[in-house]
Amino acid sequence: MVLTSQAAIDRSPRDVRERIDLIACGAAEVDLETAVAALADQGLTRIHCEGGPKLLGSLIAASLLDELLLTISPVLVGGTDHLISTPALPALTAKPVHVLTESGSVFSRYLLTSND
């Protein structure tokens, strides 16, 4: 199963469309609320999502994130990337529920609640 846009489905090769269940979750780009609803329709109500700063910001902006797994590695690197790349997000409170360490890395799990 692949959740994608209708435009991507239309561009995909026929053999891909015949072998994989492609689910349209938006016309030109994926709408995250539609994608989560499509997964729920399949009985998939617990979703583990991995992505970059833009996806994380989009999930927060759509109020679709209720838990955050954050890993801090003992390596410092330069660059301009940020954890979240979407400006003007709603404020969230993060409650730590698990913190583990291994070989200098910190693995944490937070439950998130809106500050509305």
Taken as a percent bin, the fraction of beta residues is 25-35%
Total DSSP E strands: 5
Mean pLDDT: 91
Quickly count the domains. 2
Tell me what the structure shows.
The chain has 116 residues and is an alpha+beta fold. The protein has two domains: 1-47, no CATH class; 50-116, no CATH class. 27% of the residues lie in helices and 28% in strands. The longest helix is centred in the N-terminal third of the chain and has 10 residues, at 32-41. 7% of the residues are buried. The model has no long low-confidence stretch (mean pLDDT 91).
Summarize the structure.
The chain has 116 residues and is an alpha+beta fold.
Describe this protein with a few key phrases.
116 residues, alpha+beta, 2 domains, three-stranded antiparallel beta sheet, two-stranded parallel ribbon, 27% helix
